[in-house]
């Protein structure tokens, strides 16, 4: 089989876009998962955090399905939907669109550059739920907001929310960030455990200044990534609930892949989070493979977007310097 791939990233969280609008690909559910496992492997393959299938939709401009590198499907992908937003807006020659996702049809639009000459998109992150059943998180309470989970850690205070994929978030200082606490805890809750039967994305968040935070995420189905868009959005909301930032104002969210900007709307305690950030193309390529020998694929016509990479590195270097001087 021969497929066309567009590799892209949002804040260094990188994905392979497969366009099923322009190409009459037919994938079974099993094949979608197999493709993600085979093509996302960074040791032996193209390497990526996941695959974004861009598909026709009867209710929106396009549909996005997200498969993590381990082949699991997620309900949402904040960095990924910015890449899909750019891809679909350019394909349909529009400035804004609606993207159908597993649990919501989300508004996306081309936005003023977050950094000079960097393609930037605003995407809607919703619905937001603090009900533990919506993650799911198996505890006795309906919500978990700034609470301990003593079976995970004796000291940290956690907040659990779904946006709509599941997130477990805690506010920490530099010393905790530099420890191995996040890795050990994240591996536990993404393996056999009594709390998160479907796993969870785990974010450690530091307050950098008024209006700026730093987020590091261990992603369900992937591991540590440069950034996780839904996690950064959820973390912004948690920083607001803790009084460090405000609704209806911009928060700069720094990460190991650069930075994004979030804006939390509160409409009668129903939250909608705007996630604003880059959608950067890395390369386009043709991939040929045999379903019976997925490790034997061939790549041809690989074309890099070198100017985009050079420009994005300027943003990333500035973001790194800001974190180094403000993390405490
Ligand atoms: N990196 C994505 C989230 C991808 C799915 C997540 N790993 C999950 O399984 O929920 C983002 O930018 O939100």
Automatic annotation (TrEMBL):
InterPro entries per the UniProt record, alphabetical: DAP_epimerase_AS, DAP_epimerase_DapF
Subcellular location: Cytoplasm
EC identifiers of the protein: 5.1.1.7
Swiss-Prot/TrEMBL keywords: Amino-acid biosynthesis, Cytoplasm, Isomerase, Lysine biosynthesis
Catalytic residue list: 77, 228
SUBUNIT field: Homodimer.
Entry protein name: Diaminopimelate epimerase
Organism of this sequence: Niallia alba
Source organism phylogeny: Bacteria, Bacillati, Bacillota, Bacilli, Bacillales
């Amino acid at each position: 089989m021969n497929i066309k791939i567009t590799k892209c990233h949002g804040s260094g969280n990188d994905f392979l876009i497969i366009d099923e609008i322009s190409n009459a690909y037919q994938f079974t559910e099993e094949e979608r998962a197999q493709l993600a496992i085979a093509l996302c492997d960074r040791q032996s393959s193209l390497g990526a955090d996941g695959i974004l299938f861009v598909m026709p939709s009867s209710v929106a401009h396009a549909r996005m399905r997200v498969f993590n590198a381990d082949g699991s499907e997620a309900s949402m992908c904040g960095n990924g939907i910015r890449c899909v937003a750019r891809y679909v807006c350019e394909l349909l020659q529009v400035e804004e669109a609606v993207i159908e996702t597993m649990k919501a049809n989300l508004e996306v639009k081309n936005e003023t550059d977050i950094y000079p000459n960097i393609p930037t998109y605003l995407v809607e992150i919703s619905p937001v739920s603090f009900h533990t059943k919506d993650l799911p998180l198996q505890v006795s309470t309906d919500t978990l907001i700034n609470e301990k989970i003593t079976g995970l850690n004796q000291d940290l205070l956690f907040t659990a929310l779904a946006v709509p994929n599941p997130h477990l978030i805690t506010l920490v200082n530099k010393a905790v960030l530099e420890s191995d606490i996040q890795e050990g805890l994240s591996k536990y809750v993404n393996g056999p455990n009594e709390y998160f039967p479907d796993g969870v994305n785990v974010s450690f968040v530091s307050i950098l200044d008024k209006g700026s935070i730093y987020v590091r995420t261990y992603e369900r189905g992937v591991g540590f990534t440069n950034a996780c868009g839904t996690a950064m959005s959820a973390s912004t909301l948690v920083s607001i609930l803790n009084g460090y930032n405000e609704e209806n104002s911009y928060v700069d969210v720094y990460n190991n892949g650069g930075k994004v900007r979030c804006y939390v709307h509160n409409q009668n305690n129903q939250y909608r989070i705007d996630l604003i950030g880059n959608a950067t193309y890395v390369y386009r390529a043709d991939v040929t493979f045999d379903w019976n020998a997925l490790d034997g694929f061939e790549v041809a016509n690989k074309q890099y977007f070198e100017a985009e990479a050079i420009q994005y590195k300027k943003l990333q270097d500035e973001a790194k310097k800001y974190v180094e001087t403000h993390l405490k």
